[in-house]
Amino acid sequence: MLREGIHPTHGTFIGILIACKHSGQVDKGLEYLETMEKVYGLKPEMKHYGCIVDLLSRSGNLERAYEFIKTMPIVPDVVIWRILLGACMLHSNLGLAEIVTKKLLELDPFNSGNYVFLSNAYASSDRWEDADQVRKLMGERTVGKPSGWSSIEGNDGDGSGHSHHTDTVDSSVK
């Protein structure tokens, strides 16, 4: 790029890192992140670090991703931690999932999804007492799980269509 007089942007590197992620080129992605600042003078942003965590995590390098997060030059946000948590669940690493979820609970203690995620992880590992403890903790911290709802799109014959939001569905609706 430099030889051609083309200067990449932050967005260029996002595309490159995503391409590395999809092609499984872990070391190449890490190399590009390093090149970003050293060669092109672009300081990596949170989204670049997120791409690297995703790259490492999806390839099964969960411990390496965790170490990368701990050594980031900027404080990782909840998105970074959630990327790793998703990969922990994908690769069935409950031990690291516990660590990551506890970090998420520190950063975002009123997000019910963090509790539900950990509770479900425990339940899927037949750790029912732990799952119950997490649910109790939600109650103690007055963190509620949002209610689910359904939406039905209808057409009254006039072609306009309309929406109905309901907690129950009438079985006579066609």
UniProtKB/TrEMBL annotation:
<dbReference type="GO" id="GO:0003723">
    <property type="term" value="F:RNA binding"/>
</dbReference>
<dbReference type="InterPro" id="IPR011990">
    <property type="entry name" value="TPR-like_helical_dom_sf"/>
</dbReference>
<feature type="region of interest" description="Disordered">
    <location>
        <begin position="140"/>
        <end position="174"/>
    </location>
</feature>
<dbReference type="InterPro" id="IPR002885">
    <property type="entry name" value="PPR_rpt"/>
</dbReference>
<dbReference type="InterPro" id="IPR046848">
    <property type="entry name" value="E_motif"/>
</dbReference>
<feature type="compositionally biased region" description="Basic and acidic residues">
    <location>
        <begin position="159"/>
        <end position="174"/>
    </location>
</feature>
<keyword id="KW-0677">Repeat</keyword>
<protein>
    <recommendedName>
        <fullName>Pentatricopeptide repeat-containing protein</fullName>
    </recommendedName>
</protein>
<dbReference type="Pfam" id="PF20431">
    <property type="entry name" value="E_motif"/>
</dbReference>
<dbReference type="InterPro" id="IPR046960">
    <property type="entry name" value="PPR_At4g14850-like_plant"/>
</dbReference>
<dbReference type="Pfam" id="PF01535">
    <property type="entry name" value="PPR"/>
</dbReference>
<dbReference type="GO" id="GO:0009451">
    <property type="term" value="P:RNA modification"/>
</dbReference>
